[in-house]
Automatic annotation (TrEMBL):
Signal peptide: none annotated. This is Glypican 2. InterPro entries: Glypican. The keyword Cell division does not apply. Keywords: Cell membrane, Glycoprotein, GPI-anchor, Heparan sulfate, Lipoprotein, Membrane, Proteoglycan, Signal. It is found in: Cell membrane. Cell surface proteoglycan.
Length: 533
């Protein structure tokens, strides 16, 4: 009969979903009339049992609907992984390359200094090599994230060096530890090394601060992407995913894709919290690019590493040339030292070394870089990869829905699944972010309850961006004078503190605990600048 023809057609579509049943029916010798009644009475349900899909004739049982809902969540998370893979790969690879490069530069700078100073100064250097070795130990510790002040490290180096050099340029005297300590205390006033310590501190500090901030920033970017891409889908999101991707199967239309606008509304509802990352994410990417540009220019790590041995040699030469004037002032401030006891006669070579033990390197002797202009290439490649990352989170729904496996093409709006049947999807596409989902027709989102983990990621981005911005100015946020509105080295936002603080903050608890903790914590100035209290 003509009234059952649509049912037969619908069932044939269902058979493409259940091929085993199709084979059984094809083998059946029943008449068409019996077949139709068998389908209606025994195989097709009215759909009244369905909770997510339209309650019409359906191929799906309640159990199948639940199974497909779980599958839709899995498909969604896979789409998230696929879409974020470029970011994860970029941050991982660039973090490794820059980290290896900066460590290699430091190693080669120390090796070059050791070789050239040994060749040039002989025993005078090897007997005092521990002073130089300790400098590089501390530089590595700083770069690796240790609680080290570069200013203090360099000041200690020059303090120890002035004691050693002062003894070498005055071999006719015997100096006690107390006397040499007095020499060290007068060093800032006397400036025995001229202006070299200031220049080296400026160059090395800026380069190491920027290098460390960049590498830490790349690690932060990797972690943010990894965490944001693995946030669990809310039940309302899973239901909407099921309705757009698998309800067409239950209706016997397995090849029908969701309308593009339907897909966008579902994804914007599911990814509402991630979209709120976008503003801070863009600031973070901009700051990474700007620090990279600094390393390419005035904060060049290659030049800074090269300059250490050159400037140290210049400083020693300056003190050698001004040894008489420097010694006279020291004797006036610290008193006359005791004459040295008679010593065995030195070899001519050693005597000559005592009279003029140090010299400035010629250009061909200056330390070589780790890989020529490799830093320029690394920075150029990084900037090229970072800039397209801006706007990633807000455009993620479009990225997923532009995949022809996920949704119909935007030009195919009349021949797609609109949530009920084949046809045009009429509702407007909602805006981006959590607040805009108040009128989302596909996903019910509680805009009054932001996701705590997403708010934590926003905070982490702000902290990282703050560090990068200060690194652009050559400032280390761990060791800055609080009287200028910056932060003390005791400001350490541990992951535990950050988690507890953000959980209470995101939960809307304006409690005395939050206020007391924020104000008493060493990072209170940082927390105020981040506008979290």
């Amino acid at each position: 009969p003509s009234e059952v023809l649509p049912v037969i057609t619908f069932y044939i579509h269902c058979m493409s979903f259940f091929p085993v049943l199709y084979i059984l029916i094809a083998a059946c010798s029943l008449c068409a009339h019996c077949l139709v009644h068998f389908i209606i009475d025994h195989l097709l349900d009215s759909g009244e049992h369905l909770r997510l899909c339209p309650q019409d004739y359906t191929c799906c049982s309640s159990l199948m609907e639940e199974t497909l809902a779980r599958q839709s969540e899995s498909d969604f998370l896979s789409a998230m992984d696929d879409s974020s893979q470029f970011l994860l790969t970029t941050f991982n690879q660039r973090h490794r390359k820059f980290d290896e490069f900066f460590r290699e530069l430091t190693d080669l700078a120390e090796k070059s200094m050791n070789q050239m100073f040994t060749k040039t100064y002989g025993r005078l250097y090897t007997q005092n090599a521990n002073v130089f070795q300790e400098l590089f130990v501390e530089l590595r510790r700083y770069y690796s994230g240790g609680s080290v002040s570069l200013g203090e490290v360099l000041a200690e180096f020059w303090s120890r060096l002035v004691e050693r050099v002062f003894s070498l340029v005055n071999p006719q005297y015997q100096f006690s530890d107390e006397y040499l300590e007095c020499v060290s205390k007068h060093a800032e006033q006397l400036q025995p090394f001229g202006d070299v310590p200031r220049k080296l501190r400026l160059q090395v500090s800026r380069a190491f601060i920027a290098a460390r901030a960049l590498v830490q920033g790349l690690a932060t970017g990797r972690d943010i992407v990894s965490k944001a891409a693995k946030l669990n889908a809310a039940p309302e999101c899973v239901h909407a995913l099921m309705r757009q991707w698998y309800c067409p199967l239950c209706r016997g239309m397995p090849t029908l894709r969701p309308c593009h606008s339907l897909c966008l509304n579902v994804m914007k509802g599911c990814l509402a919290n991630q979209a709120d990352l976008d503003a801070e994410w863009n600031h973070f990417i901009d700051s990474l690019v700007q620090v990279a540009e600094k390393l390419e220019g005035p904060f060049n790590m290659e030049l800074a590493a090269d300059s250490i041995s050159v400037k140290v040699s210049e400083a020693i030469m300056h003190m050698q040339e001004n040894s008489v004037a420097t010694s006279t002032k020291v004797f006036q401030g610290c008193g006359n030292p005791r004459p040295a006891l008679a010593r065995s006669r030195r070899s001519p070579k050693e005597s000559r070394g005592n009279r003029r033990p140090f010299r400035i390197y010629s250009p061909e002797e200056k330390p070589t870089t780790a890989a020529g202009t490799n830093l320029d290439r690394l920075v150029s490649d990084l900037k090229e990869r970072l800039r397209p990352m801006k706007g990633f989170w807000i455009s993620l729904p479009h990225t997923i829905c532009n995949d022809d496996k996920m949704a119909a093409d935007v030009t195919n709006e009349d021949r797609c699944w609109n949530g009920q049947t084949r046809g045009r999807y009429l509702p407007d596409v909602t805006g981006d972010g959590l607040v805009s989902q108040i009128n989302n027709p596909e996903v019910e989102v509680d805009i009054a309850r932001p996701d705590v983990r997403t708010r934590q990621l926003i905070m982490e981005l702000r902290v990282a961006t703050n560090r990068l911005r200060h690194a652009q100015a050559g400032q280390d946020t761990d060791f800055m004078d609080s009287e200028y509105g910056f932060f003390h080295h005791s400001c350490r936002l541990s992951s535990h503190f950050l988690n507890v603080f953000l959980h209470k903050l995101a939960a809307g608890l304006n409690s005395s605990w939050i206020m007391a903790t924020a104000c008493s914590h060493p990072c209170s100035e940082l927390l105020r600048k981040l506008k979290v209290h």
